[in-house]
UniProtKB/TrEMBL annotation:
Binding-site residues, substrate: T58, D130, E178, K208, D212
Biological source species: Tautonia plasticadhaerens
GO BP term, pick one: L-homocysteine biosynthetic process
Residues annotated for NAD(+) binding in this entry: 179-181, 213, 242-249, 265, 300, 321-323, 369, 376
Catalytic reaction list: S-adenosyl-L-homocysteine + H2O = L-homocysteine + adenosine
Protein name: Adenosylhomocysteinase
Catalytic activity, EC: 3.13.2.1
CDD domains for the chain: SAHH (cd00401)
Annotated pathway: Amino-acid biosynthesis; L-homocysteine biosynthesis; L-homocysteine from S-adenosyl-L-homocysteine: step 1/1
Stated family: Belongs to the adenosylhomocysteinase family.
Keyword Ribonucleoprotein: no
Gene: ahcY
Taxonomic lineage from the root: Bacteria, Pseudomonadati, Planctomycetota, Planctomycetia, Isosphaerales
């Protein structure tokens, strides 16, 4: 147990005992991160570092937080989604591990942004983001665009001098971004010339998106749907909006359970790939008329809109596994509906349409895998969070050399994580012979 109780805003510290067990259970399936934590404990590469992390507060994230603290970091952890927090985990991180946590499952918008302000008030040297909300707030403050901030953050920022506002971003060595949505937002900031700090796109690491996005999102999304609805996937028409790595994973798992999977896409290459992978491909306007379950995983806004809701059949279920609930035009759906019954079933809201049809929105349109289930399995998060920890260490080693742009995770870090993961799985691979290495690095020998 921690010797002192750090600052916190959690549901109930009495939940810590259950959270402690959950954290250690996840740790059993995260051997790569455990290996890194052992080295961090000895070497203290993050000593004296002030960190703020805006992530899903789950048992897996808790083991990342433990690793960062073991490396010497002074960490504040907040939730990146109002429904993704595991309250017992939050309590245990505070009580048992002495980590400052501001996160409550189901927190309202005011609490969410109050926690953003708490993370900023920590004056971090490194940040971790899952959707770029933390960095976005920093940028608005640095640009003195306080009117673009939520009142909770604006009220805090208004107490700072202009120099202090600029310093919020200037003091950051680097930020780690965990999601596709966040990387999209951050690259847009770089393009517009407003990015005020270096960013490491951890999401784009091969050991992250090839595995976390595909296998993690694929399995946990279907898990969330089933927990929320008890739906039998077999025989249902499952519409997956988006065929990036997350969409591929969801489609693969739905088909594996007997679902008749339909893909909607705006990218011709991905649409072609989906067709050649054996899926039906059609516009969302067409799919809306036949789908039983709709899952958005695009990272874009209003993928399913008013006209699509109006075309859906009775009993259609709609959910999102992209970062933000804006993928579904829920305000439009609420206006279309004659009546809305919240919580008709846990994590299910019913919308009664003028036609007499009933539509069901799962998890308030937020991440269904975290709203209604436990999120990604620990085994796959092992690699993602190992990359997070090592990318943090790399950014510190390169402090002062990084420009205000989005960087990929170094190949050496990616390969190191993959090698460690293979070792923990008891898998050996071949190595190039001297002759093969010479051949691959030469041009003289042809056919």
């Amino acid at each position: 147990m921690a010797t002192t109780t750090p600052s916190h805003d959690v549901k109930d510290l009495a939940l810590a005992k259950a959270g402690y067990k959950r954290i250690l259970w996840a740790d059993r399936d995260m051997p790569v991160l455990s290996t890194i934590r052992e080295r961090f404990t000895q070497e203290q590469p993050l000593k004296g570092l002030r960190m703020s992390a805006c992530l899903h507060v789950t048992a897996e994230t808790a083991n990342l937080a433990r690793t960062l603290k073991a490396g010497g970091a002074d960490l504040v952890l907040i939730a990146s989604n109002p429904l993704s927090t595991q309250d017992d985990v939050s309590a245990s991180l505070v009580e048992d591990f002495g980590i400052s946590v501001h996160a409550i499952k189901g927190e309202d918008e005011t609490s969410y942004y109050k926690h953003i302000a708490a993370a900023l008030a920590h004056t971090p040297n490194v940040t971790m983001d899952d959707g770029a909300d933390l960095v976005s707030a920093m940028i608005f403050i640095a640009l003195n665009r306080l009117d673009d901030l939520h009142p909770e953050v604006r009220n805090w920022a208004s107490t700072l001098s202009p120099e202090q506002r600029a310093g919020i971003a200037q003091n950051v060595v680097a930020s780690m971004e965990e999601t596709t949505t966040g990387v999209i937002r951050l690259r847009a900031m770089e393009k517009d010339g407003v990015l005020k700090l270096p960013v490491i796109a951890v999401n784009d690491a091969q050991t992250k998106h090839f595995f976390d996005n595909r296998y993690g999102t694929g399995q946990s999304t279907i898990d969330g749907v089933i927990r929320a609805t008890d739906m039998l996937i077999a025989g249902k028409k499952i519409v997956v909006c988006g065929y990036g790595w997350c969409g591929k994973g969801v489609a693969l798992r739905a088909r594996g359970m007997g679902g008749q999977v339909i893909i909607t896409e705006i990218d011709p290459i991905r649409a072609l790939e989906a067709a050649m992978d054996g899926f039906d491909v059609m516009p969302i306007a067409t799919a809306a008329k036949v789908g039983d379950l709709f899952i958005t995983v695009t990272g874009n806004i209003h993928v399913i809109r008013d006209e699509h809701f109006a075309a859906m059949k009775d009993g259609a279920m709609i959910c999102n596994s992209g970062h933000f609930n804006v993928e579904l035009q829920l305000d439009g759906l609420a206006k279309l509906a004659k009546d809305v019954t919240k919580g008709i079933h846990p994590f299910v809201d019913e919308y009664a349409m003028p036609s007499g049809n009933r539509l069901y929105v799962l998890g308030e349109g937020r991440l269904i895998n975290l709203a209604a289930a436990h999120g990604h399995p620990a085994s796959v998060m092992d690699m993602s969070f190992a990359a997070q920890a090592l990318a943090t260490e790399w950014s510190l080693k390169n402090q002062g050399k990084l420009e205000h742009k989005v960087y990929n995770v170094p190949v050496a870090v990616d390969e190191y994580v993959a090698k460690l993961k293979l070792q923990t799985m008891g898998i050996a691979i071949d190595e190039l012979t001297a002759e093969q290495t010479k051949y691959l690095n030469s041009w003289e020998q042809g056919t």
